[in-house]
Design brief:
There is one protein chain. The protein has 10 helices and 6 strands, in the order βαβαβαβαααααβαβα. It is of the alpha/beta class. The protein has a single domain (about 5-240), classed as Alpha/Beta hydrolase fold, catalytic domain (Rossmann fold). Strands 2-1-3-4-5-6 form a 6-stranded parallel sheet, sandwiched between helices. α2 (about 50-65) packs across α3 (about 80-90) and α5 crosses α6. It is globular.
Length: about 250
């Protein structure tokens, strides 16, 4: 039987998906680095732009390289926004959309902003002044979800100049893009997962996106989804419940 096919969208680096080995026990899983990350150094010949759009293109290329005509698409944090944009590009290929930290934008402005502006500003400032402290700060921002081992792998994979290039691309004007029309247009099973008590993503942002999508499954957990064994179990259950005949439901 065909195993489920899952494409994991990163914020910038595939090591963010600590639960990938757990998913690979029952699914065919694809993950990737954003343009300019890892072996793909900034400025490499033929490199995709180091932007949100470039990450989406890299994700589409990963699916195409594997010959996947359909798959379950999964994103967490900023990667959830890129997953929404990818789903809009190829909705017929997406059997199910699973989002950790889902939001209708990445805005940190306004009374119901999806992101906490003070935390975003602090993280961006640290990233620009002391990269090692920035990576270690991810442990605090994710409430210990990024442990020292993952932080070391991240620093080995991601260069400071790449992060500095992505910050204005992910948290600049594109963060204000309202994804509401895209989300409302998507007709596919969805699972929306809140990181309860998250320091950067707000409760109001989660409430607003779930109100927009009343037919979606929802869940809440204390650990960031991309590193949470609980999320891995939830994702498997979601795939098993997809309509019969879909590639993700098989196996």
């Amino acid at each position: 039987m065909t195993r489920p096919r899952i494409l994991l969208m990163p914020t910038v680096c595939e090591v963010e998906w600590k639960i990938k080995p757990q998913l690979e026990e029952w699914a065919e899983v694809a993950s990737f680095d954003a343009p300019g990350i890892g072996a793909d150094r900034p400025g490499s010949e033929g490199q995709l732009p180091m932007t949100a759009a470039g990450i989406v293109e890299r994700g589409l290329g990963e699916a195409d390289a594997r010959g996947w005509r359909s798959f379950v698409l999964v994103g967490d944090e900023v990667g959830a926004a890129q997953a929404i944009r990818l789903a809009a590009r190829r909705p017929g290929a997406i059997e199910g959309l699973v989002l950790g930290h889902p939001a209708r934008s990445l805005s940190a402005k306004g009374p119901r902003a999806p992101l906490n502006g003070d935390v975003v500003s602090a993280v961006v400032q640290v990233a620009r002044t002391d990269f090692r402290s920035y990576v270690r700060a991810l442990t605090q921002v994710t409430q210990q979800a990024y442990d020292d081992e993952l932080a070391d792998r991240y620093m080995a994979r991601v260069r400071q100049e790449a992060v500095e290039a992505y910050l204005p691309q992910l948290f600049g004007p594109v963060a204000e893009e309202d994804l509401t029309p895209v989300l409302a247009s998507l007709e596919m099973p969805m699972l929306l997962v809140e990181h309860r008590g998250c320091l950067m993503w707000t409760r109001e942002g989660f409430e607003d996106v779930t109100a927009l999508l009343p037919g979606a499954r929802t869940a809440s957990m204390e650990i960031k989804p991309s590193v949470s064994p609980e999320f891995a179990v939830l994702l498997r259950e979601f795939c098993e419940d997809l309509p019969a005949g879909s590639g993700a439901a098989a196996g």
